[in-house]
Amino acid sequence: MRRSTGSRWVAWVMVSAAAAVLCVVSLGGQSDEGRYDQVVASISKKGLRELGAYATLAKLLAEGPRLTGSPQADAAVAAMAVHMRALGFENVRLEPTTVGHWIRGEGEEGQIVSPLAGTIPVKVRAIGNSIATPSQGITAGVVEVRTFQELETLGDKARGRIVFFNGAMDPTLIDAFQAYGGAARQRSGGAVAAAKAGGVAAVVRSLTLGIDDDPHTGTMSYDEGTPKIPAVTISTAAAERLSEVLRRDPEAKFRFRTSSRTLAPVTSHNVMGEIRGVKKPEEVILLGGHIDSWDLSPGAHDDGAGCAQSIEALRLIKDLGLKPKRTIRAVLFMDEENGGSGGRD
Fold first, then answer.
1. Same domain, 252 and 271
2. C-alpha distances in angstroms, 332 versus 29, 73, 76, 145, 172?
3. Rounded to an integer, what distance in angstroms lies between the CA atom of residue 275 and that of residue 304?
4. What's the sign of the alpha-carbon dihedral 151, 152, 157, 163?
5. Could you read off the pLDDT of 262-273 as tens digits, one per residue?
6. Terminus of the chain with fewer CB atoms < 10 Å: N or C?
7. Are residues 110 and 225 in the same domain?
8. Is 157:149 a contact under the CB 8 Å cutoff?
């Protein structure tokens, strides 16, 4: 993350630190207004001068992508525990949690195959928890839909075909996360919907407003009693190309191959450290982020920034000598991306 583009993130670090202590710190006999002004000013000045969150983020990203069950995830847990201890946090500890262990494998490949358009290579990315294709891959005709409701109207037309979910994020929504949520179901539940319609695989448009050639991954699940079929994402640019080919040649086929697999669950850990409260230590104010990331990225924004922000908020409070009445705890949760177990156990 470049410092020139991180001002909003730094501001959130200041807000987190201030929010954690404003109403719980004892600063003598000052009025509430005076206490507020002093705490905010001291946190803001120190935080903006030192930018310690960037150093924390760099330590985390140095471990690389951190998908649950991976050696990199374990290394990140150890590194952040060491970092918290070095910063002087109290009660630094690891909390065990059972996480899923899915592996992408190697050799992902895809192609549009059309007598009219020729053979067009397409990048594909297996969706998290998807099964693999057969070793020779899957080749089939394609039906394109933009909603689950549209798929339901096709009757038997999807049987034996690849279901192509081409529902784009709504660019008119001011809240981009609302647009993301509106399109996310096709990725998380597309394979099940396609299988129920008789499809042999699901191909899903990546969830991004940009038109580029970088397919995004994500998570999905299967339903008991529904056949498991492989599911992949393709980039937004590839989705546009595939849609155009199908418009010109409805009998065009898509071929892809993946080798992903799910292994037995493993034990991983949440990482936590705290500043003990001086009057009500049993009452806890919690700050947190998730330490895992997808296997294709070190997750600087999702959610390395959240982890670094949580640690930095405690660092600022501690280094300034502020004495919170209540315990303030930072927790780096494991397994948000592909299951969410760390936040539930």
1. no
2. 35, 12, 10, 39, 34
3. 21
4. positive
5. 999 999 999 999
6. C
7. yes
8. no
Dihedral through CA 199, CA 234, CA 188, CA 257, nearest 10? 50
**Mean pLDDT value of segment 216-234:** 97
pTM listed for this prediction: 0.89
CATH number of the domain that residue 272 is part of: 3.40.630.10
Query: In a 3-state reduction of DSSP, which class is residue 326?
Result: strand
224 with 238, same domain? yes
Tokens standing for residue 63: 């471990």
The CA distance from 123 to 213, in Å, is: 8
For residues 266 and 268, give the distance between their C-alpha atoms in angstroms, rounded to a whole number. 6
Residue where one domain finishes, among candidates 214, 237, 259: 259
Please report the pLDDT score of residue 339 as a whole number: 82
- Would you place residue 192 in the very low, low, confident or very high pLDDT band (cuts 50, 70, 90)? very high
HSE-up (13 A, CA, CB side) for residue 214: 6
pLDDT of residue 272: 98
**In 3-state terms, what secondary structure has residue 199?**
coil
Catalytic center residues? 336
Spatial CA neighbour of 188 closest among 337, 21, 17? 337
Q: Which residues of 270-294 are buried (b: 16+ CB within 10 A; e: fewer)?
A: bbbbbbebeeeeeeebebbbbbbbb
24 & 135 share domain: no
Q: Residues 95, 140: one domain?
A: no
**Residue 120: domain span:** 105-259
Across the chain, mean pLDDT equals 92
Least confident of 21-30, 78-87, 96-105: 21-30
Q: Are residues 194 and 62 in the same domain?
A: no
